[in-house]
Amino acid sequence: MHIHAYEKIWLAASVLLILFLLGSVTYGAVGPGVAMVSDTEQTIDPGALDETDRFSEPRVEQVGENEYEAYVVARQYGFQPTPIVVPANSTVTFYVTSADVTHGFEVAGTNLNTMVIPGEVSEITVETDGPAEYGIVCNEYCGAGHHVMQGNLEVVS
Ligand code: CUA
User: Ligand 1: which atom is nearest the Cα of residue 147?
Assistant: First the structure.
């Protein structure tokens, strides 16, 4: 079969287009999934959080001289504890899980932001600076009360 140069260009262009489309589909499916693995932990039973050490009582615990861990539960439609109180100028690792459906945990005005997936524990470590109050919003649609789902983070001296 003889193919003109002009047709070869279009053939090459179509192949590239197909590869590009395949690439974007793969990226969309795998990209965020891979990203989530890095900040999630072992699986947990969302219906039995009360029976776990960390989430039966959502709280902030001191684990080092200047280090704290915050165990946070998201559920329709709020976050516990309320408010989340952490010391200024410290290192805080947040462990966030959901008691029901997928939520978001976004501390407004900061880069502290993660998806909260039932069965998984999202882990994020941050350094706090001066005292401040932040709003926490849910940025994943989670039901009728999604738009009123919010919390508070207080960084205190
Ligand atoms: Cu929880 Cu939207």
Answer: 2
Pairing state of beta strands 84-87 and 78-80? unpaired
- In this structure, how many other beta carbons lie within 10 angstroms of the beta carbon of residue 35? 11
* pLDDT band, residue 12 (cuts 50/70/90): low
Ligand 1 atom with minimal separation from the 141 CA: 2
Cα gap 67→95, rounded to integer Å:
14
**CA distance to 25, 47, 130, per residue, from 115 (Å):** 21, 18, 26
* Distance from residue 118's CA to the centre of ligand 1 (Å): 12
| Statement: the pTM of the whole predicted model exceeds 0.80 | no
**Pairwise CA distance, residues 103 & 96, whole Å:** 10
Q: How far is the CA of 22 from the centre of ligand 1 (A)?
A: 32
Give dist(CA 6, CA 13) in Å, integer: 11
Architecture of domain 46-156: Sandwich (2.60)
ipTM surpassing 0.95, yes or no? yes
Say if residues 90 and 128 touch (Cβ distance below 8 Å). yes
- DSSP letter string, 86-101: EESSSEEEEEEEESSS
